[in-house]
Specification:
The complex is a heterodimer of chains A (482) and B (374). In chain A, strands 1, 2, 3, 4, 5, 6 and 19 form a 7-stranded mixed sheet that branches. Chain A has a 5-stranded parallel sheet with strand order 8-15-9-10-11. A 3-stranded antiparallel sheet of chain A has the order 12-13-14, with no helix packed on it. Chain A has 482 residues and is of the alpha/beta class. Chain A is globular. Helices cover 28% and strands 25% of the residues of chain B. Classes of the chains: A alpha/beta (482), B alpha+beta (374). At the A-B interface, helix 17, strand 22, helix 20 and helix 21 of A face helix 7, strand 18, helix 9 and strand 20 of B.
């Protein structure tokens, strides 16, 4: 395609929120560009929906194939689409003409580009919560989400003897998809603590009316019929020399070991907030989901003017909620761009808002039931916390005792969170561990300050950026504050 | 964590817990004066904690050279001063010439230095540069080198000065934001968001915010808050010992002991000091990346993993304000280091402490007087 250097609306992420928003915005006549890291639309939940080599629809389930119903209208909508594009910077104040909106740096196939956008919608979805147990960095241990991606995009699975461990709907969904694909799952080690159901019951009314209930129960029944499920697992360890060989787990004080080739870990998802955070979007700590999330209003607006967020990236609510929050954000953006009037925004978005309301029913029940237990979120001893710099839990805890009060000082003390993943795998862990050591709330401890580039790029790419007259003539340019 | 002093009063209050404030507290403590440092964020939050870490006497403004050489004496024994080596590596610093114009600039500089009796900067031939740094472009034309220069870890350094000062009696309070200052009965009354503090002597080490304090004292200064941008790469095989600086083009380039490569040079971010916020300017960084790739061709494949900019004060003449207030007794300033204050930190703290405890300093600080802006 021809490189687009200017658009009215830039959407980042082609999951349900991004696809629905792009479709909606383009249909309203807004010049829309959708940038996505993957080679095909769908995001993580509908990954590779158009290209999946898995032809038997029953393997991945009808919820997955629902994604196709978002892709077809998107293709017809007239929105521009650039797959394989990694956004690494959003400039607000340093854009050559700040009145024209943002300047966005992104790369496609190792080539950096810049484009201008009057409005940005971040639809960056969710990432799996880190699951820092002893041995989680061994080859053979991966997240259930990563295993699911392999299945969706390559139609393949990694090992023979497979154990899943953790909690949450995705864990059972992956087990179910594996079983459908004819793969034997040796065991599910469920870390949901006993007593959680009682805590979750007050929220059950919403759950009983949730679209997930019937489907969820059917899926659970099918998995339970075919897989050994070990409940109330309170400790978990991956063992092996150079690669995973065994999993050790504890139930009611009794420890057992099983031989495995592949351990798939999962304990829920958290918003993918790196781009939003680096752009300066204010965050708050979600006490139920135990994660940072951007502060977003009912229309997807943030504290940064003309920068909106939709979908799980603005707070975890699932795929159906994401697509509807994407549509709602698109109508709001259309209002802000002057495409439609306020009355039109309200009336045209009413269906999406009603569907959003239905989609989030039962979330509190889920979120309470599957809240990840302390010992799997805040490790001790030699367990690795920061995978990039190989920083252990005891190093982090000792450093707090030395007088390190927050995650940003932790970076300076230990280089924790300073590797190429930009803290994706340890940010939430480090915040919670510091809070635990200090006996204060995560909110008080704060989070890593993230800076662009939020994804690594080469110096050569940066050097190949188009020169501007401005940057040619100035060795040191003093920008006037605006 | 913040240590609470027994009272909201101290013989000296230092506003700003960067390197200069921490160093002043250390030198005062050594002289038996237990100062209190008030820091609005945390120690080393901005420029002091995240600068390029250059320990450089090379290419200093002439007025700064005597201070810089005196500071070097402290750096050479930094372990003895603060019980920490501060990550100091004495690998040298060199400013390289890419073309004939650069050669002329550097030769002229050398003449100027010799004329003033300074011999620490020396010419280095292109062959020697190439043998020291095989990865550098073969077209390099020569340069100036100070072999005794080097680099250190800025956050670790600032922290070491702070803890050493505290161990000798100084106090540090973080998260205390100064609002207004008044003089009552010979005491400085400093109103903050955490209440009132009093002291007979006040030191302004408030960096990018120092002009707000000076203005309250009736001596406004044309300070500009700036954020010099830095990039760091992922770890690379070792290829570089000295810090390399550009001549015609802005560049500061070094490889740290852990293999990561730090790229700076004074290209500026957009900053909003009131929100502690800066935004990197990637078009400017693109210029910096071109300079690096021209000088070190293999760097085009280097992976940039992070960028940042700490906020600090820049003065229009490019040199700091150091010394007593021109309007008030018992008030001293040390700010405006204009993106090259890190190496000076150890000596500036001593100068300020000497001014307070002895009423004088051995070093020539007249060029840094705040009165030059009046």
């Amino acid at each position: 395609m021809i490189e687009i250097t200017q658009c009215d609306l830039l959407i980042v992420g082609a999951g349900p929120a991004g696809l629905a928003a792009a479709t909606c915005a383009a249909q309203l006549g807004i010049e829309t560009l959708l940038l996505d890291e993957q080679q095909a639309p769908g995001g993580q939940i509908y990954r590779n929906i158009t290209e999946s080599p898995v032809k038997n629809r029953a393997i991945l389930g009808e919820d997955y194939w629902h994604g196709a119903s978002l892709v077809e209208p998107f293709k017809q909508s007239g929105a521009h689409y650039q797959p394989g594009a990694t956004v690494w910077a959003i400039a607000n104040h340093t854009a050559p003409d700040a009145a024209e909106g943002f300047e966005v740096g992104y790369s496609v196939a190792g080539q950096a580009r810049m484009l201008h956008a009057k409005h940005i919608l971040l639809a960056c979805g969710a990432q799996e919560r880190p699951f820092p147990i002893p041995g989680w960095t061994l080859p053979g241990v991966m997240t259930a989400g990563a295993a699911q991606i392999l299945l969706k995009s390559a139609g393949m699975v990694a090992g023979q003897r497979t154990v899943l461990a953790g909690s949450g709907p995705l864990l059972y969904l992956v087990a179910w998809q594996y079983l459908n694909a004819g793969i034997v799952v040796d065991a599910i080690l469920d870390t949901t603590p006993s007593g959680r159901l009682t805590q979750a019951l007050p929220h059950a009314w919403g759950f009983l009316r949730s679209p997930y209930l019937a489907k969820g129960l059917k899926l659970l029944r099918e998995v339970k019929a075919r897989v050994r499920i070990v409940k109330n697992v309170s400790a978990l360890e991956a063992l092996g020399e150079g690669k995973l060989e065994k999993v050790r787990y504890t139930v009611a004080g009794k420890t057992e070991t099983i031989a495995v080739d592949q351990l798939l870990l999962h304990q829920g998802v958290i918003p993918n907030i790196n781009l939003a955070q680096a752009a300066g979007v204010e965050q708050r700590w979600n006490k139920l989901l135990l994660c940072w999330e951007p502060i977003v209003d009912d229309w997807g607006n943030t504290n940064i003017e003309r920068l909106s967020i939709a979908g799980d990236g603005g707070g975890i609510a699932g795929a159906l909620a994401a697509e509807n929050s994407g549509r709602i954000a698109a109508y709001e953006i259309a209002l802000q761009l002057g495409t439609i009037a306020r009355g039109q925004r309200d009336s045209q978005s009413s269906t999406a808002r009603a569907q959003l309301g239905r989609a989030v029913r039962g979330r509190e029940f889920f979120d309470t039931l599957y809240q990840a237990p302390d010992q799997f979120r805040m490790p001790v001893g030699d367990t690795i916390v920061c995978r990039c710099e190989e920083i252990t839990a005891s190093q982090v805890r000792e450093t707090v005792k030395l007088g390190c009060p927050g995650p940003n000082q932790m970076k300076s003390f230990l280089r924790c969170g300073m590797g190429p993943c930009q803290g994706r795998f340890c940010s939430v862990t480090v915040t919670e561990m510091i809070a635990q050591e200090r006996g204060v709330s995560p909110e008080e401890v704060g989070h890593y300050r993230l800076r662009f580039p939020t994804k690594p790029l080469t110096l050569g790419e940066l050097a190949a950026l188009p020169q501007t007259d401005d940057s040619r003539k100035a060795v040191i340019r003093l920008k006037k504050p605006v | 964590m913040t240590s609470k002093p027994s009272a909201m009063t101290a013989p000296v209050i230092i506003i700003g817990g960067g390197l200069h404030g921490s160093s002043t507290a250390l030198h005062l403590a050594r002289a038996g004066v237990p100062a209190l440092v008030l820091e609005k964020n945390y120690i080393g939050r901005h420029a002091s904690g995240v600068n390029a870490g250059g320990v450089r006497t090379l290419s200093r403004h002439l007025a700064e050279v005597p201070l810089s050489l005196a500071s070097r004496e402290i750096w050479l024994h930094i372990q003895d001063w603060v019980d920490d080596d501060c990550g100091f590596d004495q690998n040298g610093q060199m400013r390289v010439a890419e073309n004939e114009a650069d050669v002329t600039t550097l030769r002229t500089r050398l003449q100027t230095m010799l004329a003033h009796g300074f011999t620490h900067e020396q010419w280095i031939e292109p062959e020697e540069i190439r043998s020291m740094i095989p990865a550098i472009t073969p077209s390099i034309q020569g340069g100036l080198i100070v072999r005794e220069d080097g680099s250190a870890d800025p956050y670790r350094t600032t922290r070491a000065f702070r803890f050493k000062a505290q161990s000798l009696g100084a106090s540090v309070m973080e998260g205390v934001s100064v609002q207004t200052i008044a003089r009552e009965n010979g005491q400085w009354c400093i109103d903050t968001d955490q209440g009132r503090f009093t002291a007979p002597v006040l030191v302004n080490c408030a960096g990018a915010w120092a002009d707000k304090i000076a203005a309250q004292m009736g001596e406004p200064v044309p300070l500009e808050p700036v954020g010099p941008m830095m990039l760091v790469t992922t770890r690379m095989p070792h290829f570089l010992n000295p810090v390399v600086l550009g001549t015609g083009r802005a560049l500061s380039f070094k490889q740290r002991a852990n293999g990561t490569v730090l790229i700076g040079g004074g290209r500026l971010a957009w900053v909003d000091r009131d929100r502690d916020w800066s935004e990197l300017d990637f078009r400017q960084l693109g210029e910096g990346a071109r300079t690096v790739c021209d000088l070190f061709p293999h760097m085009k494949d280097a992976v940039v993993s992070r960028g940042w900019a700490g906020i600090e004060a820049s003065m229009p003449d490019g040199i700091p304000v150091i010394g007593p207030s021109s309007t008030e007794a018992d008030l001293y300033h040390a700010f405006g280091f204009s993106a090259h204050g890190f190496q000076l930190g150890p000596i500036v703290g001593k100068i300020t402490a000497d001014l307070i405890t002895q009423g004088q300093t051995d070093l020539p600080i007249l060029p840094f007087s705040i009165s030059r802006f009046q």
